Amino acid sequence: xxxxxxxxxxxxxFSSNVYGGFLNDSDITPISSNNDVVRYYEGFYLIDGYSxxxxxxxxxxxxxxxxxxxxxxxxxAYSNQTTNYPRLKWFYTLSxxxxxxxxxxxxxxxxYVENNKKPGLQIDEDEIVRTINLATLEFQYEIxxxxxxxxxxxxxxxxxxxxxxxxxLFQINxxxxxxPIKINxxxxxxxxxxxxxxxxxxxxxxxxxxxTSCYSGPSNKNSNLALLSFLVARSGxxxxxxxxxxxxxxxxxxxxxxxxxxxIQVENSSLNEIKCVYTNSSGYNAKKYGSTxxxxxxxxxxxxxxxxxEGSRPSKIKWDTIMGGSALGFNNISSKCIYxxxxxAIAFLLLLV
Length: 353
Fold this sequence. Notes:
Largest sheet: 19 strands, antiparallel
Strand content: over 45%
Keywords: Signal
Shape: globular
Number of helices: 3
Structural class: mainly beta
Helix content: under 10%
Distance between the termini: 52 Å
Number of strands: 22
Signal peptide: 1-20
Number of domains: 1
């Protein structure tokens, strides 16, 4: 069972009304809440991160609950103290017995060279050049919020949390809204978080030394980058083409969804390109890449995700995902990537030259 009731020191409740930075640069539009709910999120600073607790103002997204509660709660919590891996926890709660936990934990950045004609990283087949353990990085976070008004004239807040390593190599940002919104073309329910993941300047990065090991830095090979991560849930999960779904009997959708394309800038280029993202989840020794540490605080099932980004020696990767719950029928990310086997074959032949 996921250890939901972890101990955290509530330092103070934060209240902010700053509309700038990411929110100011984003296209955010309120959408109808006919098949969703409007929430009031209250934020708490924790000793190792933050927490947002959002209670529905009226109704619930569950369609299969027969208890007495007429409202539900969506909770997001970021922390990185227990394992030092940055992670986002989401909990949906109707009662003590009726709740759903879901956790996302990125653990490693991998530099690899394609050794076969298959798109993306196959850990047992491709050449792994370097790995960066995200637990060895230090992270800081900042929170901004903005206020909008929906079609009913009701004001609501949108929160954006930026989490970045101290060196700027890895960044993972979360956006949460009290009202369902459309943000930069993506639909987001009030029980979901839009997660923007970024890897920056890996090939120009200075890697630190630690008491037990030293990173030798990036190679000069014609390599690609991949991100390894875990999804953890109390019940079983189903891996689909563009998402991982959590099985539940409360009558709502619980997913981790991802775009099949990413905004990528390759080395020595100023051009931002939309390139393919390849995600798979089977056949690997997950213990080597973080599952042992994750099991220390989670006793449940997990899915091991291997996400690979198209483009040799990228200097910037920006990738969109969504995590959380929604009413049945609420659609989020929609993106397509056309796989061209000829291009993969050409790239493979170039490695042999």
